[in-house]
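Q: What would this complex look like in 3D?
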Amino acid sequence: MTRIVEPEAGPRSKRAAILTAAVDCFGEAGFDATKWSTVAERVGIGQTALYHYFESKTHCLLTIMRLELERSHDRFVEATKGAEDPVEALRAAVRAAYDVSPQEVLQMRILQNHMDLLSGTRRSKREEAERVAARQLVQVVERDWTNLLVKGMSQGAFPLRDAQLLGSSVLGLIVSVWRWYRPSGPTPLAEISELIEGACVRMVAT
Amino acid sequence: MTRIVEPEAGPRSKRAAILTAAVDCFGEAGFDATKWSTVAERVGIGQTALYHYFESKTHCLLTIMRLELERSHDRFVEATKGAEDPVEALRAAVRAAYDVSPQEVLQMRILQNHMDLLSGTRRSKREEAERVAARQLVQVVERDWTNLLVKGMSQGAFPLRDAQLLGSSVLGLIVSVWRWYRPSGPTPLAEISELIEGACVRMVAT
DNA sequence: CCTCAACCTGAGTTCAGTTCAGTTTGGTTC
DNA sequence: GAACCAAACTGAACTGAACTCAGGTTGAGG
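A: Here is my prediction, written as structure tokens for the whole assembly.
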């Protein structure tokens, strides 16, 4: 478990600005559809300056994905740490998953649309480091949900089932929303959150 | 609703061979990671010959996705046409969704990994035609599931809920499996099918 | 004010995808 | 069985976006 040390920002670093611009572009237009030079333009630097911060367009994408995974994990821990009752913990975790800013919606969309990148190994060092870190975080998040189910089953709050498989399924159900959800769409996120919360509880606790 | 007429195969057409090779490559290595020329090699033709059958690499991908969506829809209709009881219809539909060949597993994986392509419009005619057809088929498949739920609710077999949202969720849960499932993995598809079948019934019918 | 690392740039390279300008193949017609 | 022609194919050239290179600029700390 090699953690990536976030490059500490020099006072005139544009790393954060690049990430923000990239999230906007990749999230709205899609990774392939957005030119790397467009991101540079939006930040107000030449294209080659991007390579001072990221080894490649893909390296930037993988960084966005890792950061989003870290965020998801942190929010899960935060949301469930207080709850005693497994059903309440599950509900809190689902609500936390949908308690996100518009920027974070884009990040989740990007993450979901490019999960397949985490399978194959990458050529360059820093890309591969981000990939491995992200892959590990996926497992961490999966373990988060699985552990929640295991605890509930052992306490008798949930019927006994394959916790690993059911955990992945619950997670899959929750994140599948990000493939189609649009803030401008007809369904508000609160409504989605509520329906999915109920669905998860029925899936697990019935 | 403009249906795409499948180019009827001349006796020495390699279209089918190209599609098969492309599904293997795109499914195993990923679309971006596989060189278009590799597909040509595997079929045993020069790279430029590919353009006799597909306008572009992406056009081929979109065709694969459309064909898979058509298949999914057909299987759903086939599986549910006999069933009277809504719960049995739901169970049959889920089982049908996982009753697939290894080739079809790859096709589902490709479809899931590139759903985002269906959002933005395409430059070229034939690509755009495939994209629109695929997008429509996504809606058809969503309607398949939603209608199943509506029927069940009106018959009193399922409690009343937002059928559209719940339908998308059920579908999302089912297809989320294709992101991580590998035939070589530890969990057999039969086991997954069974767990998801139960989960869907509890989600919808409880 | 001097220094040096962080930050940036324009010009050039690469390479996969694609286009072009034809050539081959084999079934059909007379 | 020769002529024809559309489907099938090819090698060479082109394109454009990602990336490299060889330096130039800037500003915070000494």
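A: To summarize the key features: The longest helix of chain A spans residues 125-154. Chain A touches chain B at residues 29-30, 32-33, 113, 115-117, 119-120, 161-162, 165-166, 168-169, 172-173, 175-177, 179-180, 187, 191-192, 195-196, 199, 202-203, 206 (CB under 8 Å).
Q: Very helpful, thank you.
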